[in-house]
Design goal:
By secondary structure, the chain is mainly alpha-helical. The chain contains eight helices and no strands.
């Protein structure tokens, strides 16, 4: 059986820690927080499940929510350059907080993915 990136970084617990750290920044950023519901529970769960699936873990996200369709799901929000940059800052901070758990290659791969994804979500 092939080892996935998901396995290499410690599975779902790693992504749960990453998402928790990310949302700690979101709640301190008015621009980002305005795009989320008052209760962040489902948002955290959805992001965790998406990342788990994307990086080679269980396909629970797809089973529950269907194809990710990230651009379509984010279309209702004005994702400007400023919003993209705020999101990237929050995610980079979360990733930096877990830096000691990752190899350089894993850190770089995650960082590159988040930059690419954030750029694709920009719609204004």
């Amino acid at each position: 059986m092939e080892t996935t990136f998901y396995d290499e970084v410690g599975g779902e617990p790693f992504f749960e820690r990453l998402v928790e750290a990310f949302y700690r920044s979101v709640v301190r950023d008015e621009l980002l927080l305005a795009m989320y519901p008052d209760d962040l529970t489902e948002s955290k769960r959805h992001l965790t499940l998406f990342l788990v699936q994307y990086w080679g873990g269980p396909a629970t996200y797809m089973q529950e929510r269907g194809h990710p369709r990230l651009r379509m799901r984010h279309e209702p929000f004005r994702i400007t350059k400023r919003a993209r940059d705020a999101w990237l800052t929050a995610m980079a901070g979360a990733l930096d907080g877990l830096r000691s758990e990752l190899t350089d290659a894993q850190y770089e791969e995650l960082s590159a993915y988040f930059v690419m994804a954030a750029n694709q979500m920009r719609n204004v």
